[in-house]
Design a protein that fits this description.
It contains 11 helices and 4 strands. By secondary structure, the chain is of the alpha+beta class. The protein has a domain of 166 residues: NADH Oxidase (3-Layer(aba) Sandwich). The longest helix is centred in the middle third of the chain and has 24 residues.
Length: 248
């Protein structure tokens, strides 16, 4: 069973290179309308979007992300946890704003921002745009906060570039869904490496256009290479969130 929306979602590919054509304000307004309708925990709307248009800020985000194509994208959006607004409302009414700093609020805001980002991508792709999620903001979360002068009780969740696609990458193979869709509990495999052998073989046929002349490694080798006990600056994100005033 399918429809136009599902067909669009099943064709999802990361687009990193865009044409020089602008994305009109009318299209962006429509996308923002979709974002505003995203489900929100307790209806408190603890998330927001910052569009970055200043060239100097874009340069700084490109430097943090260490991916040059970020600079060239027509649209850059940053999705954030925003508990600052509701903390101010509490203060304006003589209430303890510490209630907006709780772990629950941070998790709600982070989840809401992720849901909002996904809704934006579906809307953008339905209009023919391409999109790229940018987890690279967490290469230096504190640097992003400083660059954008984010106040206490806000936190960057994920960046995103949007534009008209200037590349046609192949679909990236995904793990068979029976390994990830479970029923009534977690279903462990007796040996994951053996269970994923066919998927590993399929992954090695995929070309990532970031390095178009080189096939990617198998999934299990990616796990071994990327999940290490070496220091990872991403591990500092919770410390940065605490520095932003969240009680986590």
């Amino acid at each position: 069973m399918s429809n136009e929306t599902i067909s669009t979602q099943l064709r999802h590919r990361t687009i990193r290179e865009f044409t020089t054509e602008d994305v009109s304000d009318d299209i962006l307004d429509t996308i923002y309308d979709v974002a505003m309708q995203t489900a929100s925990s307790r209806g408190l709307q603890h998330c927001g979007i910052i569009r970055v248009t200043d060239p100097a800020l874009r340069d700084r985000l490109t430097e943090i992300g260490r991916q040059e194509y970020v600079r060239r994208a027509p649209v850059y959006l940053l999705f954030i946890v925003d508990a600052a607004r509701n903390a101010t409302i509490l203060r304006e009414h003589g209430r303890d704003e510490a209630a907006a700093a709780r772990t629950q609020v941070f998790v709600e805001g982070f989840t809401d921002a992720c849901l909002m980002a996904q809704n934006v991508v579906v809307a953008a792709e339905s209009l023919g745009l391409g999109a790229n999620y940018l987890g690279n903001i967490h290469n230096d979360t504190a640097g992003v906060i400083e660059a954008l002068n984010l106040p206490k009780l806000t936190f960057p969740v994920v960046g995103m570039t949007l534009g008209w696609p200037n590349q046609d990458p192949q679909l990236k193979p995904r793990m068979p869904k029976h390994f990830r869709v479970m029923e009534n509990g977690y279903q462990q495999q007796e040996n994951w490496t053996e269970a994923l052998a066919e998927y590993d073989a399929e992954m090695t046929t995929y070309y990532d256009l970031r390095d178009a002349n080189r096939r990617v490694d198998s999934f299990t080798n990616q796990v071994l290479g990327r999940l290490t006990t070496d220091h990872d600056p991403h591990d500092e994100s919770l410390q940065v969130a605490r520095a932003q005033g969240f009680d986590i």
